[in-house]
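Continuing the batch. This is chain 6 of the set; chains 1 through 5 are on the previous pages. Same settings as before, nothing changed between runs. Recording input and output for traceability.
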Amino acid sequence: MYENMTIIAVFIFVYSLAAGQLGKSPISGAIVYTSFGLALGPLGLGVLNLSTGAEQIRLLAELTLSLVLFTDAANSNLGVLRQSFHIPGRLLLLGLPLTILLGIGVGVLVFDNLSLLEIAILATMLAPTDAALGKAVVTDESVRADIREGLNQESGLNDGICVPILLLLLAITAQPGGGGVSMLALKLVAGQIGLGIGVGLGLTVLGAWLFRQFAKRGWISESWRQLPVPALAVACFAMAQWIGGSGFIAAFTGGLLFGWMARERKHTLLLAAEGTGDTLALITWVVFGAVVIARAVDHISWQIMLYALLSLTLVRMLPVFLALAGFGMRTADKLFIGWFGPRGLASIVFGVIVFDEHLPGGVPLVATVVCTILLSIVFHGLSARPLIALLRRQG
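Output for chain 6:
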């Protein structure tokens, strides 16, 4: 245990010293973290031996994602968002359903050993994009503001929208008769999305008000000043999950409201939450490289590799292109938005949920998710800065 702790702590220390310079390189942090886990894990030198179980991996990914969603939402430019809401609106209302449907169609053609329901589950697991892996794009101010905000809002909300869809599909597999599916779907959507929004907004209003009142009285010491925001982000996520809502939507909507309520000081207040999220992301991707990939690699077939490649290209890009038609947007911009749909933390969480259901096709489903995330880390990580520069040159 202490050997693993030492290795990870030293890596965090060294990487944090060079993070500013490495952030300017074409190699993303996620590539470095995952490569480190692969190199020192069972598939490499074998010195990093983590006995992490599925529940621990899920908890780590959920905590990381809750902080990333909260801080990214809080940093949103609401003025730009109001003027260009058509981009995330179209991506969520048209692009997301089309992505799931096209993913099902491609899955039927590629896999002959999975049922239609299992393929639908796979398409849903891989539909949401990752705010953490897409950070290089949504934080680069050389990318047009409406594109940045559109991708940020899409990645913040699509995972929460996919949760009730995934749970509905899993419920249908448990009840092959399909009785009461419409009512179950209504309850899931209303519960997950409605409770998620309610918890996110309610807790944030209360938390921001309490912070302001205690700060006025000088009760918050300097050493504790950075802790309330990460605690609020986690509280939004955890409470929503606790009462049956979507923690992802709660974290994102809470972050949006907090960014507006604390707009004068939000950058200072968010520093600790951003740092904590970055640290948890580093640990998550090290675990992904050292544990998750090692367990899935023997199950990856050519069909899985083919579906993973199509999921990152055709299945994502065609629906985005169609969803954004009619806005007078340049082809290059639509292709850019379509390409930057990285898969990551949300898909890890979904993979663990499906793994726990012990479906007949559970192993190839999880292996496909792992393969897609790994390819996404590499392709999106290496292409982010070159494509940003190309888009900038095109004006």
